[in-house]
Amino acid sequence: SRFRDFFARVLERVVLESRVREMEEENRQIRLQLNQLQGTVGQPADGANHTECPRSPTILKCELIHVACVCAGHNASRDVVTLVKSILFHRRNPLHFHFITDAVANQILSSLFQSWMVPSVQVSFYDADELKSEVSWIPNKHYSGIYGLMKLTLTKALPSDLTKVIVLDTDITFATDIAELWAIFRKFTDKQVIGLVENQSDWYLGNLWKNHKPWPALGRGFNTGVILLYLERLRRIGWEQMWRLTAERELMSMLSTSLADQDIFNAFIKQNPVLVHQLPCFWNVQLSDHTRSEQCYTEVSDLKVIHWNSPKKLRVKNKHVEFFRNLYLTFLEYDGNLLRRELFGCPSQATSESLQGALEELDEDDQCYDFRRERITVHRVHLYFLQYEYTPAGDDTDVTLVAQLSMDRLQMLEAICKHWEGPISLALYMSDAEAQQFLRYAQASEVLKNRKNVGYHIVYKEGQFYPVNLVRNVALRNANTPYVFLADVDFLPMYGLYDYLRKSVVQLDMAHTKKALVVPAFETLRYRLSFPKSKAELLSMLDMGTLYTFRYHVWTKGHAPTNYAKWRTATTPYKVEWEADFEPYVVVKRDCPEYDQRFVGFGWNKVSHIMELDAQEYDLMVLPNAFMIHMPHAPSFDISKFRSSPGYRYCLQTLKEEFHQDLSRKYGAAALKYLTAQRNI
């Protein structure tokens, strides 16, 4: 952690120094333009009337840099984020990322970039499934599978008017501005079409073990973790046909590839050495075991690109691996919100017009400005942070438990997974560093590792309030079943509740009626509890004072309409009427109204949702043989603010009144009772 703190401070300093340099260089640009007008400085070599980028005479200011990456699955999607962070941290040019993805990575990354809203960054996606037929005929032993061959198809996959692109593996970390790499295209001879770094292991020398027979390569061969592809020239020489012929010829004797696309690229270069431009090895410092990577640098400042190309990744053996690991971990945990900074002197449209308009409508003198500002804040969202697998039930009765949590409730996850065997959709409100702590926690837990039907969605922290309803909505939107059980993470459902709810969905004809099934809530004040295995056992514990109806001591009316007295003897579901401040935990159809995101922190976040369900004429039906128990924990920070701050309570009351007015406008006469109830409180 000391290393990480050190690197974080260094990186922050670099950002500040970078911004100062940008301002200084912008002034220099003005002077250069004046000199050009006076005829003292000539035009660029290509005759284009561009202003050259201050840091290099070969990089044009605001020139768009294209970067391509093949990404498939949940784990690779996480790796891509760290790669992108390292690029964004150092860059001073607009970027266009081109991702060749499977359906999983497409969903994750499209949502992430849409919510990240980084200025001067464009993102395009290409369906890997449409390219599989191009390479599926090639036997491949590499752990990357079919996706490890897809870089061969980029001339076909990427737009025909795209002339050149930097192609990167997902396990790359940048230690410099990517524009320096882009500039090397201008050093290509007329015949060169591809730029690569020499392979730093002895793999292609064929001396690693007895009878080791690698694919043909020029000398040590080349590593394809970092590639400069001159697409326009590749298309001109018939690249698609050439690599196919090369692969077909070599597979007659080699039978399969060992290093996926890298073997085919090297065999092609062996036959056509004039087409390759060899990059300095610091552009791809390869950290697999037994490499010559240490010869690529003598000083830290020499490093350009670090490539974790061993299956061991961060556990690889290298003399300086601790330094590289801490540099990587710094970007891994770096606050992605800080990378939303504008590029100095380059136009950007990162902020949508609707968001910009909403910001301009806010009154900064409003006492509740911070609350209103939070409602329109766009939080970064990383869906399916861990591996997720779900097979839909054939009877359309499946129910997902939906909840949200932050770092201080992480300890509840294992218990919930033991109590609920069905699918779960969880939204976690965390910083980048906390998300990595959660990842390590989940990977170390046998209970969580064995559950693949839990979707974990990270909503990254931003602002001073906990956007509880926004986080709930992320979990709700990403449930994949017809019905959802809207719960809180500090409750444990009774054993067998999942199956009971599915039967209740059928019994109460949920498919054809508007119902919200109420699961009665109880609580214990004891941290150690012998969890009741039946309703009879729970009633016995109620009578003994081991359990209580939820919030009986502090907020009775929140759950009083459940009618616990009736529930004690009920054997069939019964209907209850809405009352002011009622906030039960319910099972509803997945297409139910979302939570109102104006309510942040503590207060009225669930109450408002139940009011809207009632306004839409949902029948509230209490289940007679269902229950959930709240486990004790320390008070949240937001409830402390509510109790201690008059301003907080004033703004919450203001938001409540505005919500009532909006409800009345939306539902008319059906919502009048809420105004009456509010006046009577």
Give the secondary structure arrangement, pairings included.
Blueprint: H1 2-37, E1 65-71, H2 73-90, E2 95-101, H3 103-116, E3 121-127, H4 132-135, H5 154-157, E4 165-168, E5 172-174, H6 178-182, E6 194-198, E7 222-229, H7 231-236, H8 239-254, H9 261-271, E8 276-279, E9 285-286, E10 305-307, H10 321-332, H11 353-361, H12 369-375, E11 381-382, E12 399-406, H13 413-419, E13 424-430, H14 432-444, H15 446-449, E14 454-460, H16 468-477, E15 483-486, E16 491-493, H17 497-507, E17 515-519, E18 521-523, H18 535-544, E19 548-549, H19 564-569, E20 574-576, E21 585-589, H20 607-615, E22 619-622, E23 628-630, H21 637-644, H22 646-667, H23 672-680
Low-pLDDT runs of 5+ residues are: 33-57
Overall morphology: elongated
Helix content: 25-40%
DSSP strand tally: 23
The major beta sheet can be summarized as: 9 strands, mixed
Count of discrete alpha- or pi-helical segments spanning 4 or more residues: 23
Tell me the radius of gyration: 30 Å
The helix/strand class is alpha/beta
Can you tag this structure with a few keywords?
681 residues, alpha/beta, nine-stranded mixed beta sheet, seven-stranded mixed beta sheet, 37% helix, elongated
